[in-house]
């Protein structure tokens, strides 16, 4: 076997090199511009490829960010769709149940593994509010059509973030070991008030 015939090792196929190039460009765009201002076209321009090449691997900027953060399997939009498939009454409980279902599954294990590193990086940490606002809380509050949407979103975020912290990241019993349905039943009414109730 000649040197030309020998299999080459340590080098990614051209397609994978382009994918990595796109992710590098996406990371730079997100860090410089923030989640809301980034577009697939802008990432493509920075990577030196056409937008169709970016969409070959990533459906949109949501998928670009989750891949950049290392949590590509996570699809918050699917969870939000399920949460919104029902009446306004009980929306808070469905949101809590949906979030816990996401974190308790295989996708959640990936998030729990990666999240400490993301939180330790100021640039990446700064992307989370825009991402969560645009992809999770924004669609829910928009569906409700209530006043003070920004304030309500931040209150819901504080409740959910505190729940995830004390259930998964710094587990505190009995909350950490409660069945998800029980947690949703107990915490859901607070989230419901933040979403649609009287904040006076």
TrEMBL record:
It comes from the Bacteria. Residues 16-76 form the HTH tetR-type domain. Gene3D superfamilies: Homeodomain-like, Tetracycline Repressor, domain 2. The keyword Transmembrane helix does not apply. Pfam families: TetR_C_16 (PF17920), TetR_N (PF00440). PROSITE patterns: HTH_TETR_2. This is TetR family transcriptional regulator. The lineage of its organism: Bacteria, Bacillati, Actinomycetota, Actinomycetes, Micrococcales.
